[in-house]
Amino acid sequence: MAPVNIQGKPYFFTAVSKTPFDSGRFPKSLNASGSGRARLDNFDASSGNLWSFRFVGGHATAMQFSNVTMLSAARKQEAGKTSGTAAGGADRCFTLACMNYLPETGEPQVMYLAPDLHVVPDEIRAQLWQCLPVPATKRLLPGELTMQIRAHGTDKLLCSDDKCLNVYLLKPADAAVLDPATGNHIFNDTWEATPDEEPPAELVEGLMDALR
Asked: What's the rounded Cα separation, in Å, for the pair 173 and 128?
């Protein structure tokens, strides 16, 4: 099977919550419509929730950027078997483009996530990002990726919180802070990227069979 080019392919970025599961909480994803600052909103929001990887120096394939490939490359790099530039998709720099941004007034347009977590129309002003491989905590759908997103040249991670629905850039130590009242994590530091496409028919049939 030929490698799938994920350059420009739209994804939903769902915040992987660290708080106890709540069946009444609808999945939240990265969104930028309205004020123009990144935040969390409902997964099925009508705008501002489709993002694409824009890689520096050319495309990356789904094979290079899969969780298995990134984790394997990271382990080899830790063991000194590869250089940083050979570490696969995890080492690639990219900008994040919101493909369906809708301003408070005006027409839909493509915008880019900037260092201050607002979106800007010029890619040259966008923040460069890198992915850090994270093992999936559940079975992923075909094409899904689980990752931390780090601002290039820093140790700050793109994070979110379930309570205020805000998005932040935090150092790992700050992202790990616990709520003194509950003992739960305040921030989420992991994202699940789901491609905007219909899942394979056989997968849907299998899920329906399991629910019958």
From this structure: 22
